[in-house]
User: Fold this.
Amino acid sequence: MVGYVTITASLLCLLWLIGLGWAVQEYYAGKPEEMPKTVKTAKEPKNKKALTVVALGDSLTRGTGDETGKGYVGDLVDEIKDKTKQPVQLTNLGINGQRSTQLKKQIQQTEVGRQLETADVILLTIGGNDLFRGGQGLVDFETDKIAAIEKQYLQNIKFIFTEIRKHNQNATVFFIGLYNPFIELDRGKDISKVIRQWNYQSAEISADYPKIVFVPTFDLFELKVNDYLYSDKFHPNKEGYRLIAERVASLLTW
Assistant:
C-alpha cells in the first residue's frame, strides 16, 4: 500500500512538472522570433531635439502580458516625454523567447549597431530564458548544470555590454534585473536564491562599465507576485510593467 501511494505521488509530481514546462515554454524557451523590423512608435518625426530610445531583449521588452501592448518600455517612454517635455523616438528590437546567446548574435548585426549609435537611452531585459529554459530550470536549478549556464550567461552579458559601448559611449543603459514568478511554489525560496545570485553577478558586471545601470525588480514582485503577473503567471501584467517603468524612471537624471 505504501509503495502504491509513493508511485502515485511520484507520477503526479512528474505530470505537474511537464505541465508547468509547457506553460512557460513561450516565455522562457520559446523559439525566438525573427528580429522585428525597426519599430518607430513615436508619432513625432525624428529630429535633433528628439530623444532616442532603443530597447533590446526578450518578451519583457516586447511587453507580453500587458493588454495595452505598451509594457514597461511604452510606460517609460511616456515618463520620459513627461519629464523632459521632448519628443521621443523609440526602436523596440526585443524578441520573444530570446536568450543571451541569441542577443549576442543580434547585437552584432549592422542595422542593430546603427540603431545603437543614435541612442540616448538603451533598455535591456535578458536572462529569464537562459535560467528557466522552458521549465527545465525548475527541475535542475540545484545541480551543477545551472552554474555552467550562469557562467555562459555572464560571459554573454560582458560581450553584449562591450558591443554596446563600441557603438555608443554616451547612452545610459538600463539593464533590468530578474524577478521570481515562482516565489509561491513549494521550492520558491530556493529558486529565489538562484535568481538573487544571477542578479548580484549581473549587477557586478554592470558596474564595470560606464553608465550601465542595473535595475533591480526582484523586490517589486516579492511580496505580492500574483497581483503583478499576467494570467500565464509568468509575465508581468499591466500593473507589473508599470512598477518596472517607475523604477527605471526614478533613475533618470534629466
